Amino acid sequence: MAWPIVALAGTPDSIGAEYGHHLLRRWYGVQPWDQTAEKDPRRITPCPITCQNPVEQPVRYCFRDKRSAKNLGEIVDKAVVGWSHAMVHSALRIQLDPGTGGDPEITCADERVAKDALVISDETRDGDEDYNLGPDCPTAATLGYQFIPEGRPTLPFRHRLRFCGYLADNEHRTKESAVRQMMHELGHVIGLAHEHQRPDRDEHIKFMCKRLWGYDEALEAAMKDEQGMMYDSEDESDDEETRVLKICNYPYYAKAYFPQALDYIRGDRFRGDEEEQIWKNRQFSDKFDFDSIMIYSSSDLAKEEEKRPMVRRSDRSDFYMGGSPDDDKVSISAGDIARVAQLYDNGTPECKQAQDGGNWGPVKITIRDVVEERVMPPWMGKRDEL
Ligand SMILES: [Zn+2]
Q1: Which residues form the Peptidase M12A domain (predicted)?
Q2: The predicted structure's pLDDT at residue 246
């Protein structure tokens, strides 16, 4: 049987919002924790509550090794500051695992550190520029928190944040751009998925897969089809265009021939028992958030700089991860804050207000004693109507 091509050419099959339908703000990510999560390993949740009064749900991290702590410590600190507007009226905290005693050089392997802590690693290799800038050096993080149901063997180091975004001597991988990327990765850890992978994204953005870096090689591989996945003797429409649609829109084919496209594929197109269920469990808001820290910038992964793989559907204009082309103006969005307030509800009136969007003034935050107290600018007020 042929793959259902009709879904590729048809109108977007949006599934609409369920939980949070009435909400004004914008997000896409995991569901709030409930008791079924403890029994179902496919239910990825926000981080669990570790303290009841006041309620705290910390992301507890450690570094894989001392090199990672040294290279990424300051970037993580600044990225945590970047999330301060979301933490101030919620139960979310982002902090070193208590087992480290506050020392970043006590690594994840130390027996005092909890095995469910987030393992942060610098994936770059000293002196290997080709690898560091190439497609095999990963920047990626696990989404949310995975409970291990009682009676099942635990999975140590199951929460990971691999980072390749900072190279001290490279003009494209600066500390400032690394902070933006680290804020984004922490967003995954908190439980937020890519805004541009929402099932309804085609109503808001135009995605041009052919403009992605690596497209030509991917198409060549799909035409050769050495894995024998593409050819279907009953499919009369098995031509080049059909194969393009497959590798650009369906994870099964993208995994084989075009892995770069995977982070652009709509969430409702992931198939396979467990994976499908995990994606289906995600929720999204009524409105689409072009300013989220969880959206890729229009120009990310572009084959040619002036040809953006994603633009706004309405006027073909660009958008940016964290709302700005300038690294020093990047911030989380009002939608990011609202979703954190929902997933990390500390029960206060301020948190309730934050769930529908609040009035955001400056926020002060101190990260350990290393970073000075800073005031975050209230960027939110200037954004387009929510
Ligand atoms: Zn991401």
Answers
A1: 182-212
A2: 93
Cα 182 to middle of ligand 1, angstroms: 10
Task: DSSP for 149-168, please give it.
Answer: -TTSPP-TT-EEEEE----T
Distance 291 CA to ligand 1 centre (A): 14
Dist. CA 282 → ligand 1 center (Å): 15
B/e letters for 36-53, b = 16+ CB within 10 Å, e = fewer, are ebeeeeebbbbbeeeeee
Indicate the pLDDT class of residue 179, thresholds 50, 70 and 90. Answer: very high
CA of 231 to the centre of ligand 1 (A): 32
| Pairwise CA distance, residues 8 & 12, whole Å | 9
Structure tokens at 72: 């990424």
Expressed in angstroms and rounded, the spacing between residue 301 Cα and the centre of ligand 1 is 13
Could you list the beta-strand ranges (E) of 208-315: 283-284, 310-312
How far from the centroid of its chain's Cα atoms is residue 295's Cα?
8
Whether residue 54 is preceded by a cis peptide bond, meaning omega within 30 degrees of 0, is yes
DSSP string, 299-336: TTTBSSTTS-SEEETTT-----TTS-SSGGG----HHH
Ligand 1 centre distance from Cα of residue 184 (Å): 6
Query: How many angstroms separate the alpha carbon of residue 106 from the centre of ligand 1?
Result: 27
The rounded Å distance from CA 384 to ligand 1 centre is: 23
Nearest to 85 by CA among 25, 31, 142: 25
| Digit-coded pLDDT (tens) for 72-120 | 999 999 999 999 889 988 999 999 999 999 999 999 999 999 999 999 9
Contact 79, 183 (CB under 8 A): yes
Q: Report CA(267)–ligand 1 centroid distance (Å).
A: 13
Q: How far is the CA of 94 from the centre of ligand 1 (A)?
A: 18
**Residue 318 backbone dihedrals phi, psi, to 5 degrees:** -80, 160
Question: What is the separation of C-alpha 280 from the centre of its chain, rounded to a whole number of angstroms?
Answer: 16
Predicted TM-score of the model (pTM): 0.85
Handedness of CA 386, 211, 208, 226 (dihedral sign): negative
Cα of 224 to ligand 1 centre, how many Å?
Answer: 30
